[in-house]
């Protein structure tokens, strides 16, 4: 059983999706959420953790530089999932948990990612660019925001009358499906980061089969 630490700055709906998925797997779950960390004391993600008896740690921005690493070590974290966590992960943590830190981004990377691209800023940029397709991306974390190797993506259409809020909601529904599968696959060792920096293995998902929020995949026949 792998110890998973989830880092979140906000509501933690992705944390919830991961908790629900691991609960559904029951004894077959390859990981358990052993720790939730937030840089915001009021983050609802911390409440979700406390309600389940999961250690919930607030690390304010003023915490010492190595506080995150110490906390992960203390709770024997094997895997780390960033779920709406707004802080850059220190290089020491990236190195120590290389290939074991995942992030979810609410757009199709490498577009609409990078510093300052979080929350509604991402969806505003997608709408301003007139992109017809957005989506969710899960990737391994390296020292740069949103630039680690891509594990899986799921497309979501942009509609003519979308606002940043309506698009965010449509993408979030997809995130809640995609992220738990990726966490499970990495925890099982079915997907890993190779020495060459490329992802080995694949997450077994199939968006036509699981109800597409967007267009059907052009290369996958209708079920
Ligand atoms: C999600 O859209 C995620 O992709 C982004 O921040 C949002 C977090 O939402 N990084 P929640 O806190 O999981 O509800």
CATH homologous superfamily classification: Formyl transferase, N-terminal domain
The CATH class, by name, is Alpha Beta
Provide the CATH topology.
Answer: Rossmann fold
Taking Cα atoms only, what radius of gyration do you get, to the nearest Å? 17 Å
Beta-strand percentage?
A: 15-25%
Distance between the termini: 35 Å
The count of strands amounts to: 9
- The total domain count is 1
Bound molecules: 5-O-phosphono-beta-D-ribofuranosylamine
Which strands sit side by side, in order, in the main sheet? 3-2-1-4-5-6-7
| Helical content (DSSP H or I, runs of 4+) | 25-40%
Strand-pairing-aware structural class:
alpha/beta
Shape: globular
Summarize the main sheet. Answer: 7 strands, mixed
CATH architecture: 3-Layer(aba) Sandwich
Spans of at least 5 consecutive residues with low confidence: 214-223
Multimeric status of the protein = single chain
- Average pLDDT, rounded to a whole number, is 91
Describe this structure as you would to a colleague.
The chain is of the alpha/beta class and 223 residues long. It is built from six helices and nine strands; from the N terminus they run βαβαβαβαβαββαββ. Strand 4 (79-82), helix 4 (91-96) and strand 5 form a beta-alpha-beta unit. The longest helix is centred in the last third of the chain and has 25 residues, at 164-188. The chain is globular and about 50 Å long. Mean pLDDT is 91; it is low at 214-223. 5-O-phosphono-beta-D-ribofuranosylamine (GRF) binds at residues 8, 10-14, 83-84, 104-106, 172, 175. 5-O-phosphono-beta-D-ribofuranosylamine is lined by residues 8, 10-14, 83-84, 104-106, 172, 175.
